[in-house]
Amino acid sequence: MTDPELQTELQALVNKPTGGTGKPSVAPDPVNQPMIRHWAYAMDDLNPVYIDPDFAAASRYGGIVSPPVMLQTWTMPSPKLEGIGDRGGAPIEIKSNPTAFLDEAGYTSTVATNSEFEIERYPRLGDLISATTVYESVSDEKKTALGTGFFLTWLTTYTNQHGEVLGRQRFRVLRFRPAR
């Protein structure tokens, strides 16, 4: 693939879904207290609006809310683990990769560079969260200490069961040819 062809294919990704189906990813479970509690203790973020029902009820939220950066967690697919289906798990497999052409062009390495959240409102107990993700931008080819490559940014919009936007996440990676 020539450089102009590669650039054209990369730019064609913008505003396209990152996954194979183009459908929203729907959380397997509604926002719930046990998962919030696990997160709060794992992250040592013991904000009482996350874990204390009495405190949360008297707060501006009127009840327990989920930490806003948990948005991604609610819709994250189960990992594809060997034998998980046999043990009753729900294996998820990525069926297509819209950026596979970068591998073929030699940009075989990936590193996450940053993630940014915009929060519209905290998720509440019972919210069923969906995520829709599209490629937002693709840079021109850049030289970095890791190698030469492209920064790809995707935008995930998180909504509840009523279509209300809860937040957005921009996630950027560098797809690159390793420096020699």
Could you describe the 3D structure shown?
The protein has 180 residues and is of the alpha+beta class. The protein folds into two domains: 3-30 and 69-178, Hotdog Thioesterase (Thiol Ester Dehydrase, Chain A); 32-65, no CATH class. The chain is 22% helix and 28% strand. It contains six helices and six strands; from the N terminus they run H-E-H-H-H-H-H-E-E-E-E-E. The protein has helices at 3-11, 33-42, 48-51, 53-58, 71-75, 100-104; strands spanning 25-26, 109-119, 130-138, 142-143, 147-159, 165-178. Strands 1, 2, 3, 4, 5 and 6 form a six-stranded antiparallel sheet that branches. The longest helix has 10 residues, at 33-42. The radius of gyration is 19 Å and the shape is elongated. The two termini are 21 Å apart. The model has no long low-confidence stretch (mean pLDDT 89). Residues 29-166 form the FAS1-like dehydratase domain. It comes from Mycobacterium vicinigordonae. This is MaoC family dehydratase N-terminal domain-containing protein. Pfam families: FAS1_DH_region (PF13452).
